[in-house]
Amino acid sequence: xxxxxxxxxxxxxxxxxxxxxxxxxxxxxxGAQLTIWPDSLFNGLADRGFHVIRFxxxxxGLSTDFGSWGPPNIPAAFMxxxxxxxxxxxxxxxxxxxxxxxxxxxLGIDKAHMVGASMGGMIVQIVAAQYAERTRAMxxxxxxxxxxxxxxxxPEALAMLTAQPEGPTREQRVKYGMKLRQTIGSPAYPTPExxxxxxxxxxxxxxxxxxxxxxxxxxxxxxxxxxxxxxTVRVPxxxxxxxxxxLLPVECGRDVAALVPGAxxxxxxxxxxxxxxxLVPTIVDRIATFCKAV
Length: 294
What we know:
This protein is α/β, with parallel strands linked by helices.
């Protein structure tokens, strides 16, 4: 692990692979630390000939947090957004896109393949649209354009975004984390319970910080949709989405692919909103093959 100052904050990051290989930046989703990218995916992409970087977004993990701003009022933010007003937020997704580029600047990297999952997909969409000269290709994974009227996620999955553990103990946090991952996970590819517990424990012990995830959620609400922006993307684009995603239904991915000129779409039956170990080799192969071809 290492840390750099970039875009006015400190960013915790990790790299693997040969620095002479094309750079590939992994951008994670809401409240998710860099460790949510499976090591098998991280190392697998390096084995396919990429210099791979993963990092903690602001307000997550070991990067700078915005705790001084305080906990956000998510229901009030939704109400404002529905009235056509922009909610107050300490930052928006454009700032997080600038963080990603600031990290690349600090590492001396001019261009990278931009690979983002969920909220990370939203961030790489902004990078691809606004910083095409820095983007070799974009891979948007189980994300969305934010278009109003797209099908919502399942109520039980959406409820987990604002749910809390039953109490403050480590075990209660771990149980909550396991329930979250099981609720949004892949119906056809359940992660073995021991493996899932180990992942959740690692992340709980690294940093437990739900307040940061709530502010990131606020930033998504305050950022609006990317419908018109996506129409301007001119970099090679791959959209990947699970056909059984309970959080952002597959129609969200299809919408992104329809908006980006020339985008390729890959949907996978039985895949939810996670990286199940059974599917990682398939996902690595699809990303690597696509990025190698551009």
